[in-house]
Amino acid sequence: MRKVHDIDHVTPGILLSVIEEFDAGKNTYVDEGDVRASVIGGSAIDYSDRILNVKQKNPPMIPKIGDVVVGYIDMLFGNMISVRILYINEKLTKSGFSAIASTRISYSGGNYNSNWRERNYRGKYVFKVGDIIRGRVYSLLNSSIHLTLDEKDLGVVYTMCFSCGNEFTKVPGGLKCNFCGNFEDRKVSIDYGKESFTLLYDKQFLKL
Ligand SMILES: [Zn+2]
Fold first, then answer.
1. 158 alpha carbon – ligand 1 mean position (Å)
2. Centroid of ligand 1 to alpha carbon of 56 (angstroms)
3. What CATH code is carried by the domain that includes residue 12?
4. Whether the predicted pLDDT of 191 surpasses 60
5. Range of the domain at 50
6. Does residue 134 surpass a pLDDT of 90?
7. Are residue 50 and residue 79 in the same domain, yes or no?
8. How crowded is residue 122: how many other Cβ atoms within 10 Å of its Cβ?
9. 24 closest CA partner among 41, 49, 56, 42
């Protein structure tokens, strides 16, 4: 049988040992002489009294409705974008959740930037893979995390020029490259280019 102390990731119901070898301790149960885990965690044995415990691990942080998330766009499909979540309410997460957002402009949004809306006659936001965006969770329907981008502090928070790789400056209606003059039509957050986002971008894509 598997050596109990080697198991550092156990799931509920997994066989850890038998009662002849170890007594069932914390977060375990006995089923027909088998000692099994009752929670997600890692096993730990107290050899002094031969008790097998499972140390419970915190479940991954799951975004809730109203949470603000920051992530990068990893896919575009139809009128939707897929966003790999890196931060939930400013806390780094390694859970690897993806969220989706519509690129269609909602006309029902509250804090909507009306100047921007008037300029954008296509009724659609433009995004590119690699953009770092901030969104707010508004629905968890069908086990998907749905984001809205229709607020002043939501939208693209950082990206780099797709022509030359240099820094963009926020300009009316989008972003303009300081170096080559390339203009990109974007729904840009009011605090675009804050230092923390440039650090995030460097960490994500340049592996610094
Ligand atoms: Zn450029």
1. 14
2. 49
3. 2.40.50.100
4. yes
5. 4-56
6. yes
7. no
8. 10
9. 49
Distance 57 CA to ligand 1 centre (A): 46
Interval 192-207 mean pLDDT: 76
90 by Cβ neighbours in 10 Å (0-12 / 13-18 / 19+) ranks as exposed
Whether residue 61 lies inside any domain: the answer is no
Expressed in angstroms and rounded, the spacing between residue 44 Cα and the centre of ligand 1 is: 55
Q: Is residue 72 domain-shared with residue 40, that is, in the same domain?
A: no
Report how far ligand 1's centroid is from the alpha carbon of 185 (Å): 14
Claim to verify: residue 91 and residue 43 sit in the same structural domain? no
Q: Do the Cβ atoms of 81 and 100 come closer than 8 Å?
A: yes
Cα 30 to Cα 17, 25, 26, 38, 129: the distances in Å are 10, 10, 11, 10, 50
Count of domains observed in the chain = 2
Return the sign of the alpha-carbon dihedral for residues 192, 196, 199, 200.
negative
Residue 62 lies in a domain: no
Distances (CA, A) of 52 to 38, 120, 163, 175: 12, 63, 59, 58
Taking the centre of ligand 1 as the mean of its atom positions, its distance from the CA of residue 28, in whole angstroms, is: 58
Q: Which of 192, 203, 116, 195 is nearest to 159 (CA)?
A: 192
Q: Give me the mean pLDDT over the 39-51 stretch.
A: 77
Query: Residue 15's Cα: distance from chain center in Å?
Result: 32
Question: Same domain, yes or no, for 23 and 111?
Answer: no
- pLDDT band for 164, please (50, 70, 90 cuts): very high
The one-letter code for the residue type at 149 is L
